[in-house]
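Sample A.
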Amino acid sequence: MIRAMIVDDEAPARSELEYMLKETGQVEVVSQAADVREAIENLKDAGCDVMFLDINMPGATGLQLASALNKISRPPAVVFVTAYSEHAVEAFGVNAVDYLVKPVEEDRLRQAIEKVKNHVSMVNKNSPAERIPVEKGGKKLLISTDKILYIMAKDDYSYLHTATDRYLSTVSLAQLESKLELHGFFRVHRGYLVNLACVEEVAPVNGGTLLLTLTGTDVQIPVSRRRVSALKKALGL
């Protein structure tokens, strides 16, 4: 799920865009801001993968914010959403992923989301692997995500499984899902998060569900019926 911030000085415009983004089923709106100052504070507090950013706002403009974001180490993607088409050249000059003109059409928004997903995926591939804090034998460790085969929920905690060991994380599976989805992990069941790069075999079972076998193991992970279609799409099946 893409984590988004909407930045627009008009509350109705923010609400309408939030509704449209939620309807796609691919975007979680984690915060909203009415101006650049508020957007910066939200970014410090919660972060996001993409900003849907208006241009003309009181005080600093969206173009100025986008330019400033380029100076931080891992800036969010920027999609401008504005009533004016004449700023498009300037927008791409500050590395915007896309430029939408209000009123935003559903198909055009979905195109922008695909561009954002590709952008975020590329950034993640070129960045060091995410590391997750875990516990083992009374010690605190950091496990690289590319070592994790799957993660299993355990009450409010999680167990991270590698090819050779199991580690406890005090972070819930839902929180790990949000953190790792853009690193190739997929929630196949309410109790399991799987590294898709480690899926070796996909076997159908009675009832229209699936069992996943992971590379180098005899572990079989169940896929809930409601996740089968999305998983097949993610794996290109």
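Sample B.
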Amino acid sequence: MRDLFAKILGLPVLASEHGAKVDDLIIYVHYLMAALFVGWILYFIYALIRFNRRANPKADYVGIRGHASNYIEAVVALVEIVLLVGFAVPLWANAVDHFPKADEHPTTINVIAQQFAWNVFYPGPDGKFSKRAAQFVTQDNPWGFDKSDPDGKDDLAPMSNVIHVPVNKPVIITLTSKDVIHSFKLIAMRVTQDAIPGMRIPLHFTPNKVGVYQINCAQLCGNGHAGMANGRLYVDTQEDYDAWLAKQPKQSAGGAASFE
């Protein structure tokens, strides 16, 4: 049934585990909107017939005497409360409070937005990122990596506009911005999060469908805003992901940014 209504509403392809609940909420809201639309149309037709000039030659200044409208408003408010408390709040709470645990071995990635690209950073096999600080920023070290930090020796070289993740495995992305506010949007994953300068904001999802998906910026960020849509998320099989990972240059080797 969900697939039928998703097709009717023209919802985009779904490729994450939690996205089904997001789509359910969207569909339930449309149920309510459809009921209100039909209800108001029927009431409008009723009002045209019931209160036309021929049926009411003399104006009635008292107006409505019944309480049906109050009851209808109460029902609508109750449905909205159920949608909010029963669906939207739990969905949001799960997204912000229940991050994948270490024993689930999530894929961890750092993403730094800038005008007009997504800069992507992967840790090495140890799963630890190199420390970064403003005092380390130089012309040949624009991201401020601490080159003496042993945790960064096996980190991958920075990439631009490309993210690879394995299917059916949790992903944690820590997001920030180099310049202005951007908004990291993965429509197929049903994920949207603002990237704010000076803040590191984590988000998570579990992709469940192999494919290539567009990364959008949902915040107008300048004249080249449309170029942010050049970003791509590749959801690979574990074998393809491991093969891709093995080909990537290391940061310590001075590897150039990858676009594959």
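B remarks: DSSP finds four helices and ten strands in the chain. Residues 19-50 form the longest helix (32 residues).
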